[in-house]
Every structure is written in structure tokens, then in C-alpha cells.
Amino acid sequence: MTGIYVHVPFCLRKCPYCSFYSKPYDADTASRYVDAVCRNIAAYSYKGINADTLYFGGGTPSLLDAKQIGSIVEECRKVFLLDTAEITLEANPCSVDEEKLRGYRAAGVNRISFGVQSTDDNRLGFLGRLHDFKTAVKAVETANAVGFENISADIMLGAAGETCKSLIQTIDTICSLPVKHISAYMLKIEEGTAFDNDNIRNLTANDDLMSELYITAVDRLDMHGLKQYEISNFCREGYESRHNNKYWTGEDYLGFGAASHSFFDGVRYCCPPDTDAFIDAPVQPREVTEESVNRGEEYILLGLRLCKGISLDRIKCYFGRYAAERFLALAQEFSKHGLVKINSENVSLTPQGFLLSNGIISQFIDAVIG
């Protein structure tokens, strides 16, 4: 089954740490954008593609009203069937109310992800968020009251003034709300963002503190029954993000909208980050980013993001017996330092290993191709 991703690039105000493509919200542009998304989805009619996830990301998808979201969902149902689909909408807590949330639920959205980020209003202000924590609580509780049983919340680690104690308070408070899933992201200063300056770097967590915060988050979320299943993602049993899992397990997904990405039939491609060009084009522009994906390398690169890790048998199938032996030998070295677990021919990273995942994964890839 294929996953469908719809990028909604509109924001009321861009967060200073965000490097994703977005544009200021304008009602007329948003209306024309929704029409263009539906037109592009319709172009896939009769291609026989079935999907079981639909994800509205952004930007701020909750700036679209329920009728607009519903029109996209309905077009996807006609074209991709969406059999027993997980349909996720990212939402800013200050951009929803009871009427809007009821409308989204009636339109078929059955999973909602709120950008909560912190329980501390000063920290929310530092992050440039438009909501306070009281607003976030109301949004989560209202979503639950109108029928959203699958609710996710994002939290940000390492903002100015963050300590392990304050992070524990944030986690304890959010876990007292009716949430089934939490994404815990480490604040990273991205080039070209408003946060890209030394003053902000000096205010945010350094590497040592960030490591402590991350391990604290893993342990505290586990204590609340939210088990880690990916570097940044935690959930109660049965509430993994089915759509995001497609990215990490190498399944097909189709992206619609400006700055959306796709992986289909072994090819990676994107739609350029240009809202006007997307709206005006009869069919969205397509730029190939990777024409021939190395499935073996990608299996290592993406599979080691998951707590379940990767199979040595599949490494052997992709690279051969001797490469698999080199891979296992390296894994055993990493395990001595508490960075890797080896269980029943399966290799996975520990939370400490996740902190060094880029370097570890690079060494694993070098081992199998060397």
C-alpha cells in the first residue's frame, strides 16, 4: 500500500527555528492551492494505486477549513480508495476550535498531531509559537471530546533555559492529557533560519546537555507507557504513525503540493518549493532527486532509525556473506560501548546510539561496501 502526503505550505507566522518551506497564509491563495492539489490527485485516476495512509503536513495544515480538507480527502478516496486509512492532520493549537475539529473529524481525519512543544510559556515565546500552553491543553482536550482517539503531540528539547527537571515537568504534564503518541525533537539550528546566529546558539542546549535531555525524555516517556519506536517517536501500544513508518521501511509514498517529496517505483522526486508555480501548472512540476536508489544502503540508513533495527539476514541478501560478517563485527564493537544491541540476528541502536546515529550508520555503510 502507498502513502499519500499533502504539503500545506501556509503559516500565520514562520517559527524562527523552522527550515521547511512555507508562505504567509492568504485565503484566496489557499483556496486555489486546494483546487490544484485535488487536480493533481485526480491525475492519478485509473492508475490502480491503492493507499492506506494520508498525511497533511506543513506549514500549518489546520489553517485550511474542514471543507477544504474534506475535498482533498474525498478526492483521495475516489482515486486511491484509502482502505482502512490512517488520515493525519498536523495542527497548531491556536488555529483550531471545537467547530473546526468536529469538521475535520466528519471529513475523515482520524489522527491529529498538535505542535505543543513545551508546557512553559516563556519557552514557547522563545520558540516563536503563537499559542500558550493553556491553549494547547484546550486544543488537545477538545479534540478528544469531539472524537479524536488518536492524538499526537510534538515536544521540543533544548530551547533556552531547558533543564532535565523542566523537561520532566513538560513530559509529565503532557502525558496527563489524552495523547497516544509523542514526537520529541532535539532543537537544531538550521542554516538560513532566524535562529541561525551565535546569540541563539549560546542560549540553547549544548551537545552535553542535549544528550542528557534526550536520555531523560526516553526514560520518562517509557515510565508513562509511551515506548520508543523510532529516534524521535514514542507511543502507547498500537499507536505508531503508520504513515511515517512508510518512510523508514522503504515503502512507496506520493507527495502533492509545493515542496512535497515522493518515493515511487524506486525513484525519489520532489515538487519544487514554489506555491505559485504549483497552482498554475496543469500537473505539478517534478524534479528527480535520486533516480536509482540503492536498496541495501537505504535499508541500513532508514532501518537503524527504528528501535526494532535491521536484520543480519537481509544485510547478507543485499551485500553478501562477507559484508554481513563485517557488519556484525562492527556491531559487536559498538555494543561494547552501549551503542548497539544485537538480539536474535537483529541489530538496533540504543538511545545512546541514536545520539550518534549519523556517524554509526555511516560506518556500517562503509563496512558493507568496503
From TrEMBL:
Any one GO molecular function term: 4 iron, 4 sulfur cluster binding
Main location: cytoplasm
Superkingdom: Bacteria
UniProt protein name: Heme chaperone HemW
Location of this chain's protein in the cell: Cytoplasm
A GO CC annotation given for this chain: cytoplasm
Function text: Probably acts as a heme chaperone, transferring heme to an unknown acceptor. Binds one molecule of heme per monomer, possibly covalently. Binds 1 [4Fe-4S] cluster. The cluster is coordinated with 3 cysteines and an exchangeable S-adenosyl-L-methionine.
Family matches, as SUPFAM superfamilies: Radical SAM enzymes
Family named by the database record: Belongs to the anaerobic coproporphyrinogen-III oxidase family. HemW subfamily.
Stored NCBIfam families: hemN_rel
Record organism: Ruminococcus albus
Source species taxonomy: Bacteria, Bacillati, Bacillota, Clostridia, Eubacteriales
Domain spans labelled Radical SAM core: 1-227
PROSITE patterns (UniProt xref): RADICAL_SAM (PS51918)
Keywords: 4Fe-4S, Chaperone, Cytoplasm, Heme, Iron, Iron-sulfur, Metal-binding, S-adenosyl-L-methionine
